[in-house]
Amino acid sequence: MDYDYATDGITGSNVSGTTINHLTIIGNLALSARGIYFTSGNNLDITNNFIAVAGEHAIYANDADYSDISNNIIITPRYGIRADDCDYCTINNNDINTGNGTTGPEYAIYAPNSDQIQVLNNILVADQYGVYVHNSYKATINQNKITGRINYDGIVCSSSDSSIVDRKSVV
């Protein structure tokens, strides 16, 4: 398929049970293009993808409880993975950067209001925030390598009672 200058990669709502696996979304979409953009849907599997877009979101999964976003390579300027209200989700083994290895996207992983989310073993280059899980009860953030300018915080876990942040590496 030829997606030259498409508005976005893949979009949808009410997409519960969707699997996106081994997909490549790269460079020649419109400059505002988003990679994968789902406004609602639980039990998503977004795994083993390569996404390089210039738009605001590489992966956006809103209200996506019990989802797995893992083993993706993401190159984007603003949000690598944005998973608002993603209760019981796993964001694991992703490599997120801007392609230059120095600055990174503004938010590598942004997942507020996501109770019992697990953010594990990711390699993140971030410009402003590495992992942002504000207001996420019992979040687990473990063994993530976070580098880049990090103008604000490597990890934000505020108002997240009973959460665990362990074996982190912010350099």
Provide an overview of this structure:
The chain is mainly β. Helix content is 0%, strand content 40%. The protein is built from no helices and 21 strands. The chain has a 7-stranded parallel beta sheet with strand order 1-4-7-10-13-16-19, with no helix packed on it. A 7-stranded parallel beta sheet has the order 2-5-8-11-14-17-20, with no helix packed on it.
Helix content: under 10%
Shape descriptor: globular
Run of helices and strands: EEEEEEEEEEEEEEEEEEEEE
Strand order of the largest sheet: 1-4-7-10-13-16-19
Described by strand count, sense and barrel closure, the largest sheet is: 7 strands, parallel
Spatial extent as radius of gyration: 15 Å
